[in-house]
Amino acid sequence: MKKIEAIIRPEKFDAVRTALHDAGYHGLTVTSVSGFGEQRGPVRIWRGRSFSSESVQRTELEIVVPDTEADKVVSIISENARTGQPGDGRIYVSDVDTAVHIRTGTVHTGVEEEKGM
Ligand SMILES: Nc1ncnc2c1ncn2[C@@H]1O[C@H](COP(=O)(O)OP(=O)(O)OP(=O)(O)O)[C@@H](O)[C@H]1O
Ligand SMILES: [Mg+2]
Predict the structure, then answer these.
(1) Residue 66: CB partners within 8 Å, gap ≥ 6?
(2) Nearest listed ligand to the Cα of residue 89
(3) Which span out of 38-42, 43-47, 111-115 was modeled with the highest average pLDDT?
(4) Which of 9, 38, 56, 83 is the pocket-test mutation for ligand 1 (most atoms within 8 Å of CB)?
(5) Residue with CA closest to ligand 1 atom 8
(6) Which of 34, 36, 92 has the most ligand 1 atoms within 8 A of CB, as the residue to mutate?
(7) What is the DSSP string of 3-30?
(8) Helices 13-22 and 70-81, axial angle in degrees (round to 10)
(9) C-alpha span between 49 and 43 (Å, rounded)
(10) Given 3.40.50.2300, 3.40.50.2000, 3.40.50.12780, 3.30.70.120, which CATH number is that of 2-109?
(11) How far is the CA of 33 from the centre of ligand 1 (A)?
């Protein structure tokens, strides 16, 4: 299994969420995050002083899928999160060893075909 972590613009969340849902991916974790990219944050003036290293607010999605579906999910997220402007975010993909469905006790390991693990 792969875990896809995507840091996207908050205003793109609805489009990404809908596209994932329409493609059959229903389970995901959503977190509000703040961070820094290559550019500095917006310059703010406060009491006559300027501050330019402010973090930007983003939405982070975590979604765990079979290995065979990771590329498709990455494409869905990147196509629906892109504006083409700086700040569109990042997607990271990593390996997951084990997933446990708490209610049923089902344990998933390795490459599997079904969604919603
Ligand atoms: N190397 C990184 N590791 C972890 N998180 C990152 C990294 N780079 C960016 N992020 C996260 O992504 C958010 C958005 O970054 P951003 O899209 O501005 O990246 P960028 O590298 O500056 O690309 P761009 O030039 O398109 O703006 C950051 O606020 C941060 O939360
Ligand atoms: Mg940036």
Answers:
(1) 1, 2, 111, 112, 113, 114, 115, 117
(2) 1
(3) 43-47
(4) 38
(5) 37
(6) 36
(7) EEEEEE-GGGHHHHHHHHHHTT----EE
(8) 140
(9) 10
(10) 3.30.70.120
(11) 12
Identity at 33, one-letter amino acid code: V
Residues 104, 12: Cα–Cα separation, whole Å: 33
Q: Which two tokens stand for residue 93?
A: 């993909």
- Paired tokens of 40: 């500095």
75-111 confidence digits (pLDDT tens): 999 999 999 999 999 999 999 999 999 999 999 997 5
